[in-house]
Write a structure and sequence with these properties.
By secondary structure, the chain is mainly α. It is 77% helix and 0% strand. The chain contains 20 helices and no strands. The longest helix has 35 residues. The two termini are 30 Å apart.
Length: 435
């Protein structure tokens, strides 16, 4: 068992110190309104990469560049970048008016006090079918913002509800990258992992619905329904239907772009040159999010090569002993990896080898270890303020004219918090049944 190099984790600490430390200082120390917005996350990650490059002088700068290039060139990172850009183009095509039409249509057919509940349920279904939380958040956040605006609910509550529902599907979906990575890495069938995972996720989802209902049932709702165009609902209906049917996320977004373009041009709301410009503007709105994904991958490649992650693994195996504590250690392992990498699929892939060894040492079945890896990685990913899910939600809201910080939303991430509680109960109160 490698001891690793704890000092290699310094770049992660440098990032957290600048981003979270200065953000908290500006927001609460100097009482600067929206203090977190004064800390550009891209600069924080550049600072962390600089720290990583200064470390380990036994490796030349050219070799460090090669290591970072390999990290950025990972298939999961490329896929994520493409989803960001295509999703941005879709939002640019349909514009705010389509999201408004969907929101007003929804509020017109259901009681307004149940609107937030419906957002959560829809996000759960769509993310489970699509297998991507980022795609779900991109599609539903504009609708959540308009629902909040029209019904007098807090925007952060509606957006946080969508993120929670998106993480439900990210954790459970058969076609989610996290499910595939966890099952393949631990050598278990997807259906077996789903069965065990479902009974952990379902109580958390039901408890989330109860909390949302308690917060919104007696809320004074003052819905102001405006005129909307039914034809503008079509692109969102098509992408939501495609998501529920489990169509590939790229194809779903392409369908949305094509249908939205046809409708916008046929109705005379836009000319071809403006349509292309809007696509570019929408994609450009995802540039910062895309750059964060690139910088995180580069930083983690250096941290990993220096032995930082080996140090984490060594510490966890030394501290946690015994079957149930071993399960908790496995969960903390992948959760820590996710906090470090800001990518739950990458975290699972990195944790897989040591998790297989821990499974043998602690007598944990492959399906339980796959379930723990997927669940705890999704808990961390759904909460961290610099994760793709949070950044996409903030970006989508800002394109709708609403300024939100990650810490505004984190108060309403009920599902990830409850999923942690449900997971701990499953580990310490429910004995695993070995087949």
């Amino acid at each position: 068992m490698k001891k690793g190099n704890p000092i290699a984790l310094l770049p992660i600490g440098a990032f957290l110190l600048m981003y979270l430390g200065l953000g908290l200082l500006f927001e609460y120390g100097y009482k600067i309104p929206m203090g977190f917005y004064n800390i550009p996350i891209v600069i924080a990650f550049l600072w962390a990469i600089l720290v990583a490059c200064i470390q380990n002088r036994s490796i030349s700068f050219q070799e460090k560049l090669e290591l970072m290039a390999k990290g950025v060139g990972d298939k999961n990172i490329i896929t994520m970048l493409l989803i960001f850009l295509v999703a941005g183009a879709f939002v640019g095509v349909v514009g705010r008016s389509s999201a408004q039409s969907v929101a007003y249509f929804m509020l017109g057919i259901i009681p307004a006090q149940y609107a937030v509940l419906v957002l959560f349920v829809v996000a759960c279904f769509v993310s489970t079918a699509m297998g991507t939380s980022v795609g779900t958040i991109t599609l539903l956040t504009p609708i959540a913002v308009e629902v909040a605006t029209a019904s007098n609910f807090e925007v952060a509550l509606c957006v946080g509800t969508v993120i929670g529902g998106a993480m439900f599907g990210d954790n459970l979906s058969f076609i989610s990258d996290t499910t595939i990575a966890a099952c393949n890495g631990q050598g278990c069938a997807m259906k077996d992992k789903f069965k065990g995972n479902f009974w952990i996720a379902l109580p958390a989802a039901l408890a989330t619905l109860v909390i949302i209902w308690a917060l919104t049932a007696n809320h004074e709702v003052s819905v102001i329904l405006k005129e909307y165009s039914l034809i503008q609902i079509v692109p969102y209906l098509l992408v939501l239907l495609g998501g529920v049917l489990g169509v590939n996320v790229f194809l779903v977004l392409l369908i949305g772009i094509v249908s939205g373009s046809i409708i916008m041009l046929a109705s005379g709301q836009i000319v071809p040159t403006e349509l292309l410009a809007n696509m570019g503007t929408g994609a450009a709105g995802m540039y910062e999010t895309s750059m964060v994904a690139v910088l995180v991958a580069a930083m983690c490649a250096l941290v990993s090569s220096y032995g930082g992650f080996d140090a984490l693994l060594y510490w966890i195996r030394r501290v946690f002993r015994g079957g149930r504590w071993g399960q908790l250690g496995m969960g903390l392992l992948v959760g820590t990896m996710d906090i470090a990498t800001a990518n739950n699929t990458v975290a699972i892939v990195m944790a897989n080898p040591i998790a297989r060894e821990m499974s043998k040492d602690y007598g944990i079945s492959p399906k339980r270890s796959a379930c723990l890896l997927d669940t705890f990685s999704c808990i961390s990913q759904g909460i961290i303020p610099y994760g793709a899910q949070m950044l996409v939600a903030i970006t989508a809201a800002s394109e709708m004219g609403i300024a939100l910080s990650a810490f505004d939303i984190m108060r309403y991430l009920f599902y990830p918090y409850l999923l942690l509680v449900s997971s701990l109960i499953a580990i310490f109160a429910i004995k695993e049944k070995h087949q």
